[in-house]
Amino acid sequence: LARALDEAASHFKAAVADTDLVVLHMRYFGKGFIKQVQISPDAFVQMGLQLAYYRLHGTLPLICESAHTRQFRHGRTETVRATSSDSVAFVKAMAHLDQSSAETKLHLLRRACVSHVELLKEAMNG
């Protein structure tokens, strides 16, 4: 047991040493602004994660998000597949910056965020 704990500790230390963290403080907008323009902050972040992954890896991510079902007795969590046809359309429009207008990109972002919220609501409602 002691050997297993030592091995786990060394793996943990190696993982920590291999991790980089950069914090970007957004001065121009935050959750308040995102809510003010009637976009879900969670959905906004999910779309940002999908776009960042696509730009880094050239492929769409398979993202799962958990949704609580606490309105049911003994409610647990339900898995939501966050990548949808609407999020794919948004990501692909943003990845090709010179081909879509800003209005189109905003429309696709809003549609992807609405779809994401609907998926979460459906999962939470069973």
**Overall radius of gyration:** 19 Å
Major β-sheet annotation: 2 strands, antiparallel
Overall pLDDT level: 85
Number of helices: 5
Strand order of the largest sheet: 1-2
Topology, number of strands: 2
Q: In terms of per-residue confidence, which ranges show pLDDT below 50 for 5 or more consecutive residues?
A: none
**Pairing-aware structural class of the strands and helices?**
mainly alpha
* % residues in beta strands: 5-15%
Order of helices and strands: HHHEEHH
Spatial separation of the terminal alpha carbons: 42 Å
Which geometry do the CA atoms define? extended
Percent helix among the residues?
55-70%
Descriptive overview:
The protein is mainly alpha-helical and 126 residues long. 58% of the residues lie in helices and 8% in strands. The chain has five helices and two strands. Strands 1-2 form a two-stranded antiparallel sheet. Helix 3 packs across helix 4, helix 3 packs across helix 5 and helix 4 runs antiparallel to helix 5. The longest helix is centred in the C-terminal third of the chain and has 23 residues. The mean pLDDT is 85.
List the helices and strands and how they pair.
Elements: H1 2-17, H2 31-36, H3 41-57, E1 64-68, E2 77-81, H4 85-95, H5 102-124
Antiparallel strand pairs: 1-2
Helix pairs in contact: 3-4, 3-5, 4-5
Question: In short, what is this structure?
Answer:
The chain is mainly alpha-helical and 126 residues long. It has helices at residues 2-17, 31-36, 41-57, 85-95, 102-124, and strands at 64-68, 77-81.
Keywords summarizing the entry:
mainly alpha; about 130 residues; 2 strands; about 60% helix; two-stranded antiparallel ribbon
